[in-house]
């Protein structure tokens, strides 16, 4: 793995962070936590930046157990709706 490429991906991620607030809000959700035995609010944590997308981990807001992971695929549409 080329470390320079990883740096570039991180930079791209940083830039995207500022422009995708609405998308982040859409992601706010509740998941079932096996420890708390109920649907709980979750915290989203970036685990990895992969070529196919950013891998996130969802942590229970109460006990910090991992309740799920997800890959946000970074497939950009060819046409931009302005
Ligand atoms: Zn929990």
Summary keywords:
4-stranded antiparallel sheet; binds zinc ion; 2 helices; alpha+beta; single chain; 82 residues; elongated
Provide an overview of this structure.
- The structure is a single chain.
- By secondary structure, this protein is of the alpha+beta class.
- It has one domain (3-73).
- It is built from two helices and four strands, in the order ααββββ.
- It has helices at residues 3-19, 21-27; strands at residues 30-33, 38-50, 53-60, 66-73.
- Strands 1-2-3-4 form a four-stranded antiparallel β-sheet.
- A hairpin with a 2-residue loop joins β2 (38-50) and β3 (53-60).
- It starts with a helix and ends in a 9-residue tail after the last strand.
- Zinc ion is lined by residues 33, 35-36, 40, 60, 62-63, 65.
- Zinc ion binds next to loops.
Task: Write a brief structural summary.
By secondary structure, the chain is α+β, with helices and mostly antiparallel strands. The protein has 2 helices and 4 strands; from the N terminus they run H-H-E-E-E-E. The chain is elongated, with a radius of gyration of 15 Å.
Rough outline: elongated
| CA-CA gap between termini | 36 Å
Q: Summarize the main sheet.
A: 4 strands, antiparallel
Number of strands: 4
Mean pLDDT: 76
Bound molecules: zinc ion
Number of helices: 2
- Round the Cα radius of gyration to an integer and report it: 15 Å
Give the topology string: H per helix, E per strand.
HHEEEE
Give helix % range: 25-40%
Layout of SSEs?
Blueprint: H1 3-19, H2 21-27, E1 30-33, E2 38-50, E3 53-60, E4 66-73
Antiparallel strand pairs: 1-2, 2-3, 3-4
Zinc ion is lined by residues 33, 35-36, 40, 60, 62-63, 65.
